[in-house]
Amino acid sequence: MKKNVLTFMGMLTLLFLIGCQKTETPSHKNLKKAKETEQIKKTNVPTVFIHGYSGTERTMKNMVKDFEKDDFGKEELVMEVDESGNVSTENMNAEVFKENNPMVRLVFSDSKSHQWNQAEWIKSALTFLKKEYHVEEVNLVGFSMGGISSFLYLETFQNDETQPKVKKVATIGAPFNEFIENEEQELDDILKNGPQTVSEQLVNYGNLSDNLSKETSFLLIGGQLSESKKGDGTVPISSSLGVYNLLEKKGIPVKNEVIFGVNASHSSLRKNEDVDRFLSDFLWQS
Question: What CATH topology corresponds to 5-15+25-284?
Fold first, then answer.
C-alpha cells in the first residue's frame, strides 16, 4: 500500500484551525421534530465519533451532547489513543454497554498525524471496545479527516478478527479526493461517474476497495455554500462525496446529503441542525 503522506500532509495545513473551533450550539427544533415523528431504535451498539485534523476531545462534544439531550443516545465513554496505540478512557464505569444507543468520543493524542496512523489508532480503539466491553458491532461518525481515516481503517483492518463488525459509517465533510476543485461538474455527474479529476489518494482507495464489506452502510455528507461555490469553503463536494460512485459500483449501501447555504461551511457542519437530523435518522431511525 502506498502511503500518500507528502501529498496529504499539504492539505492538512488547511484544516489546522478548523478541526476544533468552538462555537455556540444552535437550537435543535428539527432534531426534536424528527424524534417525535420517528421511532428511535435503542440498542447496545456504540457509535464512535471521531474528530478531524487538529481536533480535541471538545470537537465532537456538542454534537454528542445534543443527541444525548434529545434522548437519541447516551454518552458512555471518552477514549484517547496515543502515538503508540495505547488507549486511556474516561467514564469507564460499566463492563458492557446498555441498550441506550451508547456514544463514544474517540480522541487522538497526535491529532495532526496522517490518516494511516489514525486508521491504526482506530483499530486500537475498537480492539479495546471488543475486549473490554464485548462490543461485536459498532457505528462510526467521522468529521473531516476523521472520515477518511475511518474509511481507510475499513479498507485495511475490517477483516481482522480483533475488530467488531462496522454496521454504519457516516462521514461529514471528509476530503476523500483531497482538495481538488471542479466548479463545472454538477452533483448528479459526481454521483454517477465520480470526480472528473481524481487524486492519487482516491485512486488508492479504489485499489483497496475490495476489502470493504457489503454489510456496512454509508452516509456521506457534504457542504455547499452557494450555487457557484460547490463546496464547504475547504472541502469541495466532489471530494466529500468522492467515494459515492466507488461504493455504489461495489454494491455497498450508500446515501448522500448536501447541506446548502452559509451554515454549510466546513467547521459549521458538525454544528448544523440538518446534519444532526440526517445522522440521527441514519444511525438510529432507519
Answer: Rossmann fold (3.40.50)
